[in-house]
Input
Amino acid sequence: MDIFGIFLILAIILVSMTIHEVMHGYTAYWLGDRTAHDHGRLTFNPLVHIDPFLTIILPILLFMSGGPIFGGAKPVPFDPSRVKWGEFGAMLVGIAGPLTNLLLAFLAFSAYVFAGDTQFGEIFKMATYVNLGFFIFNMIPIPPLDGSRVLYYLAPDTVRRGMQAMEGIGGIFIIFLIVFLFSGLISSFMLGSIEFLVNAFARFYNIFL
Output
């Protein structure tokens, strides 16, 4: 096992997920909700945002197994009733984190293009894949993942009540079960989606550079 590789992956994860969570909090703050601010979550200290399973254990196990790396962090608290524009505002808060990972992935890929197949290039390549994994995984519309906020905005009330019930019985536990029971299917979906987005980044550079 490459100890340096594990350390590097952990550093990328902590930086990526810290920025992810801070963007949730700042988006909510911008839309009028101070909950994240009052709970001390508008900080770039990664220790405040770590979820032991989603941020550390799951990504490291995936890295050790050679699978696509994905995970999450401790959700930033916010009050949907306080944000502007109702469910649409809540959706903006939800997607702010994953879209941040998508942007970070594109920036890391850009750095990889210019660094080439060097040691630094490999680091940027790894950061690209990690952030794409976090983007895709967190956009799955299952509570408490961020994609559920899109579904909250689009779905009828009956579906919303079902999603609220899922969160009430422990959303993280449900995510753990889904990852455990459907690991092969999720890995295939993640790998295909990551490859699609990497190819899209590459096409962008082929067209515009």
